[in-house]
What does this fold into?
Amino acid sequence: MFEALSPAWAWIIAGLVLVGGELVLPGVFLVWLGLAAGLTGLIEAALGLPWQGQLVLFSGLSVAAVVLANRLNRQRAPTLNLGAHRLIGRSFRLEAAIHAGEGRARLDDTLWRVAGPDLPAGTPVRVTGVEGTVLRVAHVPQEDEASGTAHV
It folds into this structure.
């Protein structure tokens, strides 16, 4: 059965197997090798390359695909796994007063513990830091609030 398979189809099938292997071994690496194999098969079908040329083409496409994946991942990575640190700089109004330096506030769909100066409910504050799961906040003066600071 495999003897009758043209080299182009062999590369395309290998590409599909590699992409399918990503389901078993997640990590978004086999996808890029599968893409390189599939492209090698399409180019081989169009040009009829010898096996040495196919291997060089696959190697080059694999390296290019992995470099592309690395660049795409680096562009996306700054926002991954930041947790509460992504909230630094965000402004909102206190839902409940801060008393004795501690309080609670709702940002988006999460209730956060906040720490800062004692302030009444409804006061505009800005996240200035994070300590574990506690947001450090500071009062936002009225002129900063009027300058277009987004409130949640």
Observations:
- The CA atoms of residues 124 and 141 lie 8 Å apart.
- Confidence is low (pLDDT under 50) at residues 144-152.
